[in-house]
Amino acid sequence: MLRITNRIAQPRAICRSLFSTVSKVAASPKAALEEGLAHAGRRDGLTICVGGFGLCGIPESTIGSIADDFPDVGDITAVSNNAGVDGFGLGILLESKQVSRMVSSYVGENKTFEKMYLGGELAVELTPQGTLAERLRAGGAGIPAFFTPTAAGTVIAEGGFPIKYKSDGSNEVEVRTGKTFAYPFFSTGTARNFNPDAARAGKFCIAEVEEIVEAGELHPDEIHLPGIFVNKVVKATHNEKRIEQLTEIPAEADSTSKPAISGGRGRIVRRAAKEFKDGMYVNLGIGIPTMASNYLPEGVRIELQSENGLMGMGPFPKQGEADPDWINAGKQTVTPVLGASTFSSSDSFGMIRSCKVGLTILGGMEVSSSGDLANWIIPGKMVKGMGGAMDLVGAPGAKVVVTMEHVAKNGSHKILDSCNLPLTGKGVVDLVITDMCVFKVDKENGRLKLIEIAKGLTVDDIKANTGCSFDVVEGELPLMDGE
């Protein structure tokens, strides 16, 4: 396994010299929180910005202290990319009913969160991941508002998504503001993610670290966040560093070998790999899109970007070598390749919005004939969040490829005249690759064009399984993947 190291003796260390002549080191998370609460002047209605991505790089000790030592602190608005999991991370504060509102991009597999939201106990402001990172960065820079193309034409931009359900199932929309704390975590690898952005946004910042070192042990170039942003530092008392999606390959496996993928999924994967061009910077969704990177055409080298702050994503680690500080956007453990780099979430989405990432391949629930995409929520049933998808598909000029089964498991159409589900992006899809065919999207005319077909199928088969009309490429219709 390739490992990228720097001169920090221990990960997530912080240097005493950051704190000028006044010590900012608190005796415990409880002591730091007491001072933060005194600074705020109240114990209810606070907004806390919590760093981390999934369970990677979260301030475990400080979160636990809020639940254990400050049960009277409630009506919290928690700003965090994820909501933890049941019984861990922010999931603890959800279960204690201390959080009344979440501002997140993806809630993950938190059943408590989903139950509270759909039951009217929790207000949720789902925000595209890059927009959330930029809101934190801009807040720390004193910028009150900014414009972004992300989510244009979707329910998120139009303000129609329910923030809170009433007990009778209807929707309630309300806005509340409060003073802000930040609980960031300084770290190596992809554990950096939202932490520098959360730290800058807070009016009172508590930094939870694994080790506090003496002045001079950290080079100035190794400092990810100047001490001016930090009010208190606490050494972690609980540091489980739980891995949400442990993903490994056998110790004896060749990490360069291609996994065997047969049937329709294999057909999709092999065809998607043809979209890679040498030197491309690429972002891949989990599942089928990620598998496509194993089938690079000969002579083609690409750089894989993971929106949680990694450029140069490599293979899954070998058994026993997984590092909780190195995960991809799907929370799976990964390894960095030689020459990889890490960065904050706001930097990551700056790359995406500025179209430095030239190709995005992701899954879909529905695609319309004009290139609209829906892939993030089923209202009233599935509440996962959009994650970084809205940012990725909203980058002007980047190519967006959707890979998915042609029809749903129940046989219903997934390619339609118009999407029935809330949109991830309007008119954003360039190519649709399914197990049956390949459609190119003619955005100017709002039409699909059938450009390739799976072996053994006819155009009539495609028509029978597609919920909209489409054009067919002139001449002989090519087969997918050279079949």
From TrEMBL:
As for what it does, the entry says: Key enzyme for ketone body catabolism. Transfers the CoA moiety from succinate to acetoacetate. Formation of the enzyme-CoA intermediate proceeds via an unstable anhydride species formed between the carboxylate groups of the enzyme and substrate.
Any one GO biological process: ketone body catabolic process
> What residues form the catalytic site here?
307 (5-glutamyl coenzyme a thioester intermediate)
Task: Identify the EC number(s).
Answer: 2.8.3.5
Q: Can you say what this protein is called? A: Succinyl-CoA:3-ketoacid-coenzyme A transferase
Q: Which residues cross the membrane?
A: none
The alphabetical list of record keywords is:
Mitochondrion, Transferase
- The species is Triparma retinervis
Family in the record: Belongs to the 3-oxoacid CoA-transferase family.
> Which pathway is it part of?
Ketone metabolism; succinyl-CoA degradation; acetoacetyl-CoA from succinyl-CoA: step 1/1
Molecular function GO terms recorded = succinyl-CoA:3-oxo-acid CoA-transferase activity
- Reactions performed catalytically: a 3-oxo acid + succinyl-CoA = a 3-oxoacyl-CoA + succinate
